[in-house]
């Protein structure tokens, strides 16, 4: 086959053997109607009424979709609703109020349960306090909290009074916080004294103080006293203690403010490994409908379930699938403050076992770590409560996918869900009660969503060939714009593949992918992770997938080293599973695997073994940093990494 689109690919992405959902799962699945795709298709966009219909509206919407000002779409216009009412109040009826809403697991074994009634009380009291502090409707409130119950409480309290929240991941620096508050015009902050990091009390308030010093506006600040005597702090001007406020407003209730479906629910700055962070704007009706629907249809969540998404609420996954989706459905959502390896590497399985978790959702980076640590950890607990597993955030190759399904799930279905901060909710995935699962492929576009993989000209690529992943129709959870303006929103996401003349609007995801005959999409990586070697464009993630398919390999990151003489050479950084020494045999197996999957053109020039790969706090491998190292560039600030110490090791390794 010729190489028409210059991607250097002439064969389909190798996928593992497919799996059918087990009968026992199908029998109880939320969605089993095999004609659901056609039904959504025939009735688009009204099909989305089904998602909106699961919510409680104060006023019904007039239209499902308004596209007159595309790509600035409006969903469920005219409708009014409140997200906090939908996630809390409406579950208080009958016997549901004593049902657990949040089960919190602290770092050192502390535990707290908030029933829906407890959550209602906490959200109302904080909402009343925020009002008293002059937070008005549409004021942006920044929340800078670790994974403690006060984080979702604060989000819901903001939602209750119609104040958009702007959650900044607790591990980000003072500068990052200040930049986000400044960009979001935010004059209110909710933070805490500190939290435990690797056993030590870490001073979060110190970071918040530094951020406030660099901001021009006076920032009213609520401080949660999380560590008590372990980290004494004093409150300054404009600072209020969370627990004192709760006491002062004890028993107070605040009527949920009816928000227009198109009013902003929150802002989320994407972590972006380069460039200015983008303030992604999400609105109330469409977002909530989309996250509730996908929690029901893809994650199969039921009100009586105990559901656990082991992400951080500081990123979009936690917003959509720890807080809004599960709580809109009235289920029990587990929140975990700690890390998977403390006090031991079976920590997550101990939590699954003790809470009898039904559905578990995590990221491939975690799954690869579990695999590296060994199957004895999940095997030492009773995980038979698990009915469904999910993954999100990065491509997952067949080997870790199968390991996860077998060693953690005992053969239960696995949904690989593709979506983004900008899409708000899931876009590509199998429906676990209906679809065949193909390890290595995220899946087809969900009902009501249309995805196309296209070449530079926007023409569909042939099955198995790589191209750009685009979405050809609007969807309810979509970002409405970027906070700093519609222009950047249009330019980054819509202009690359749209034709405004003909009204053909297409969203560009920034990802490359391939699609098979059945419409299953395998995401290959970001466009910025493509390297060109000998005139052929290769996806670094595709090479990485071939490398991680080698027994004994835990993780890999592939980057390009460019020189005038050699052109671009491929450097592969590889970490091995516990018990596997980095040997020449593994090196040879890597070369064979890459050669077999892609071709000799993709053979790494250098394979560098390292105990760990540098990662962002959200767990994404920092390829750009490795790229800078191999190219001898000056390194960017590495303090935002999860494991900054590894950079020194990798650099020293290179100098030797
Ligand atoms: C990647 C996280 C492959 C992709 C929800 C996307 C994935 C970016 C998958 C968004 C998946 C997410 N398979 N790649 N299942 N899910 N990605 O904004 O490159 O933090 O563009 O949202 O993660 O990351 P974000």
From TrEMBL:
The UniProt record lists the EC number as 6.2.1.1
Per the record, which residues fall in region Disordered?
A: 1-27
Q: Which UniProt keywords apply?
A: ATP-binding, Ligase, Nucleotide-binding
Query: In the UniProt record, does the keyword RNA-binding occur?
Result: no
Instruction: Tell me the domain of life.
Output: Archaea
Give every AMP-dependent synthetase/ligase domain span. 98-480
Q: Does the keyword ATP-binding apply?
A: yes
Basic and acidic residues bias spans: 1-12
Span of domain Acetyl-coenzyme A synthetase N-terminal? 39-87
> What is a GO molecular function of this protein?
acetate-CoA ligase activity
Q: Which GO terms describe its biological process?
A: acetyl-CoA biosynthetic process from acetate; carbon fixation by 3-hydroxypropionate cycle
Which segments constitute the AMP-binding enzyme C-terminal domain? 542-620
Give the NCBIfam families listed for this entry: Ac_CoA_lig_AcsA, PRK00174.1
The family database entries (PANTHER family) matched by this protein are listed as: ACETYL-COENZYME A SYNTHETASE, ACETYL-COENZYME A SYNTHETASE 1
Protein family membership: Belongs to the ATP-dependent AMP-binding enzyme family.
Record-given protein name = Acetate--CoA ligase
In the UniProt record, the gene name given for this protein reads: acs
